[in-house]
Amino acid sequence: MTDAFFGGIEGGASVSTVVLTNGKGDILAELKGEGTNPWILGIEPCLSRVNDLIKEALRKANLNINIKLNGLGLSLSGCEDQTFCKTFESKLIECYPNLTNEVIVVSDTLAPIALACESGGAVIISGTGSNSLLINPDSSIKRCGGYGHLLGDEGSAYWIAFKSIKLCMDHLEDFNYVPNGYSIDRVWEAIKEHFNIDKILDLLNVFYGEKKEKSEIAKLCKTISELAEDGDELSRWIFSEAGKELAKFIQSLYPGADKKLHKENGGLHVVCVGSVWKSWGLLKEGFINQLDHHHNSQETIVDEFTLLVLEKTVALGGVYLITKKLNYNFPFDYEHNYRILFHYIHDRRDQ
């Protein structure tokens, strides 16, 4: 019997990862390329990039680049709407009929869950922006967030960077003072250095100028995390606040989870995706605080959940999704795809 070949792509706004496997689950090639968000690129340039990425993966695996895949799973940022996903699928088959026999297109929130959770679970993405989603065993979905930097992105790198800038601006103008008498000196110096500016008015060009780049602003988050690790009190406070925001995603999703997911070993499984989670040590205090102390009567009591961090590329989740759609006997290896970041039980914490 000839072997089967499957492709998976995790498509972010700025970077995409592609993975190629055989039917036995061996990864034959994995590589990174440019972003594949159809809203940013347009549908046809996005399809062309998908085609190029697969050809490049086949080349890297020393396979004939004209091999037609048995299935391709695309998990792309911006693909939230099901009608849009279906249009994208049929357009791909129409434009590139020799690329794959079958394709599935889903939001970038679905592949991480597919990779770590057999019967459903949740994901919280916190990279440049933020988003979260819960999928139940019956495929019903609860969403929270994912509306971009003007309408959301709480707890993301952009949110942390923006908060740092706004705190310093307001303090310098005697409009609002930073909490607990913290000094703004180190954070403000970091902001000036990052954007190569020397006064508040120069920020107008950063936010409203022709070259405004959300990702450039978000990159300030890394410097703030370094200051926090170095003991800067304001930076530590900002990360604690970001932790609270990320915990609110769990409070939003938790009541919508099927009882089966609540009863899993370790409670609801929540996959953590994105670079902000690398600073878990800085987020943790605010995160737990938000869950333990009820700030108003409407907040949900969350009983138990486990945060998971993926050990394999999210692109492999695309392969999991397409092989499931095809009912292909693929060796799903859930427990080797992640590690446990944190286990929470209300009123008792296991770290």
From TrEMBL:
<dbReference type="Pfam" id="PF01869">
    <property type="entry name" value="BcrAD_BadFG"/>
</dbReference>
<dbReference type="GO" id="GO:0045127">
    <property type="term" value="F:N-acetylglucosamine kinase activity"/>
</dbReference>
<keyword id="KW-0418">Kinase</keyword>
<dbReference type="InterPro" id="IPR002731">
    <property type="entry name" value="ATPase_BadF"/>
</dbReference>
<feature type="domain" description="ATPase BadF/BadG/BcrA/BcrD type">
    <location>
        <begin position="8"/>
        <end position="291"/>
    </location>
</feature>
<dbReference type="InterPro" id="IPR043129">
    <property type="entry name" value="ATPase_NBD"/>
</dbReference>
<dbReference type="InterPro" id="IPR039758">
    <property type="entry name" value="NAGK-like"/>
</dbReference>
<comment type="similarity">
    <text>Belongs to the eukaryotic-type N-acetylglucosamine kinase family.</text>
</comment>
<keyword id="KW-0808">Transferase</keyword>
<protein>
    <recommendedName>
        <fullName>N-acetyl-D-glucosamine kinase</fullName>
        <ecNumber>2.7.1.59</ecNumber>
    </recommendedName>
</protein>
